[in-house]
Write a structure and sequence with these properties.
The protein is an alpha/beta fold and 248 residues long. It contains eleven helices and seven strands. Helix 3 links the parallel strand 2 and strand 3. The longest helix has 19 residues.
Length: 248
Amino acid sequence: MLLDEYLRKYPKLALAYSGGVDSSFLLYAAKNAGCDVSAYFIKSQFQPRFELDDAARMTDLLGVPLIVGTLDVLNEPSIINNPADRCYYCKKAIFTKLWELVRADGIAVLFDGSNADDDETDRAGMRATQELSVISPLRDCGLKKADIRLLSKQAGLFTHDKPSYACLATRIPTGSVITGELLEVIERSEDKLFEMGFSDFRVRIIPPSTAKIQMPAAQWDIAAARRGEILAAVQNDFDSVVLDLQQR
């Protein structure tokens, strides 16, 4: 089924909005299909500030209401203990909070931006959305990430080339306890590298205090040339800093 036809079945809906490529395109498509759509963003300690900034920018451009809720994920033992299926517990907490907000506003339908490339067998978080009756139009209509980027570019959305972004908790190894201090260190380090012009990178933690920087191989030469600047930017928070040469 074509996405526009699919969306017209839901004249009033809420979208779990992250500010990323997929949910931004879905927001645009729902608005374009004539749906009465509201965007709901859950702010937690796992998200960097720029995600909310991007969400606010896009909803303002599209003229869509943005409702921001908060969730203290650091108060959830099943999340901060960082088990292998942490994403399931995190998504369940987030979407439970979303449903509270959405239902309080009198809306009975909740979408998310999962696409056809998202393999439910690999993503524990998708199990939570299915359990909570969240609808995934992009996936249901067979739209893959490449399709969504192309359609976003054609629509003039600034998110069309935005790098994929996983939450800050993914930088901490499974089994290592997640703390607010660690999340702040990671976000601070990534903010500094972003300000230096690097993109599509991660600063991961190797316990007890090593930063492992992962970035596309095309940026390695630049990183080598700016080694001193990188160290100055992040080494105050770590005992050592390494570059992951296994990245492509």
